[in-house]
Write a structure and sequence with these properties.
The chain is of the alpha/beta class and about 375 residues long. The protein is elongated, with a radius of gyration of 35 Å. This is ParB N-terminal domain-containing protein.
Length: about 375
């Protein structure tokens, strides 16, 4: 049987003469301190990168003052902010539940009149908040939750605006056609075809074709229509066909709408339906359609006046003139040299083609 060894208590002074005392605070050892500092620095850097990437990718929601938002940064696609009932419902929701969905903004390269951010989408929410602030003077409505995005170019900014409105509340075909032409006039796209494909590339081809047809309606009538967003699809497509085929019809319809503006959407739709109906009957009768005129002018016309003029095709002079004005084109005439010079940001291949077509129509 093995003998057991007796264990004796440790001797406190056994190592005192030969070994130094341990450090009083092991946590402050140089290696541990360096490792801790490096870990904290790495965590802070990672957090900074995460926040920076979130802001750059539009995943960060900031709180901005209402007065620093420039709602005119883009030409808006929606022509009206909705009816009084819709705006009242939105204001009631914001007052009761607060802002649930942020607007989208882009930082301006340089402040303009105190505005530091340009509005991309959310015009109705911004307008409702401003109305609430004016009505209640509540500091809750002095700011807006905004998602800061950084579109690579103007085309991407317009696409973001259009797609946001398409998802939340669809635009009318007229509004889609109008923003297409305005994007061309603003120099965002070179041609209406390019604008259609860029702004509405996510919709079906047939739907995009209908928007393209509405361009024929927007171009000559945008300045005289008061309720264009109310035009239904069937009526709009019919009018577009008539306006494209007969510019005498376009001139007469403009005269009618300008001389007797409609007070309501119903009145304006009645005028448009009557004009299209008369034009269609004239086409069925033999290719000559009556020109829409003001009622008073029609009553005062002598009984022996000539009948309706035949169809006039080719570019519409008034529409061309309006396009030149909106496209920032300057025309100069040199009588001595027999020369007309067009210059400005709107001079492009599409304009040159339109001028050539117009010249051909004058010779024919």
């Amino acid at each position: 049987m093995a003998k057991r060894k007796r264990l004796t208590p440790a001797q406190p002074g056994y190592l005192a003469a030969d070994s130094p005392a341990p450090a009083a605070d092991p946590a402050r050892a140089p290696i541990a301190r360096v490792a801790g500092d490096a870990s904290a620095s790495a965590a802070l850097s990672e957090l900074s990168d995460t926040l920076r990437n979130a802001r750059a990718e539009g995943r960060m929601i900031d709180v901005l003052a209402l007065d620093c938002i420039d709602e005119t940064h883009l030409v808006r696609d929606r022509m009206a902010q909705g009816g009084d009932d819709d705006m009242a419902a939105l204001m009631a929701s914001l007052e009761t539940r607060g802002q649930q969905t942020p607007i989208e903004v882009v930082a301006l390269p340089a402040p303009r009149n105190g505005k530091t951010h340009g509005l991309i989408s959310g015009a109705r929410r911004l307008s409702a908040l401003r109305r609430l602030r004016a009505r209640t003077e509540d500091p809750r409505f002095a700011t807006v939750q905004a998602r800061l995005i950084a579109p690579p170019d103007a085309q991407a900014a317009y696409v973001a605006m259009v797609e946001e409105n398409e998802i939340r509340a669809g635009l009318s075909l007229y509004e889609k056609g109008r923003i297409t032409l305005r994007a061309v006039h603003e120099g965002v796209y070179p041609t209406p075809r390019a604008a259609l494909r860029g702004l509405f590339g996510s919709v079906s081809r047939s739907r995009r074709s209908k928007i393209g047809s509405f361009l024929e309606l927007v171009e000559p009538l945008d300045a005289v229509l008061r309720f264009p967003a109310m035009i239904p699809e069937k009526l709009g497509l019919g009018l577009a066909k008539a306006l494209q085929a007969d510019h005498a019809f376009a001139s007469g319809l403009r005269m009618k709408l300008r001389s007797d503006p409609a007070a309501t959407a119903e009145e304006e739709l009645a005028v448009l339906n009557a004009a299209l109906r008369d034009w269609t009957r004239g086409q069925a009768a033999g290719g000559a359609a009556p020109v829409p005129t003001d009622d008073a002018a029609g009553r005062s016309a002598p009984s022996g006046a000539p009948g309706p003029r035949p169809r006039i095709t080719g570019p519409d002079p008034e529409s061309v003139a309006r396009r030149l004005e909106e496209s920032r084109v300057t025309a100069r005439f040199d009588a001595a040299a027999g020369r007309i010079t067009l210059s400005g940001g709107g001079v492009d291949a599409a304009l040159f083609a339109a001028v050539q077509d117009w010249l051909k129509s004058r010779r024919s």
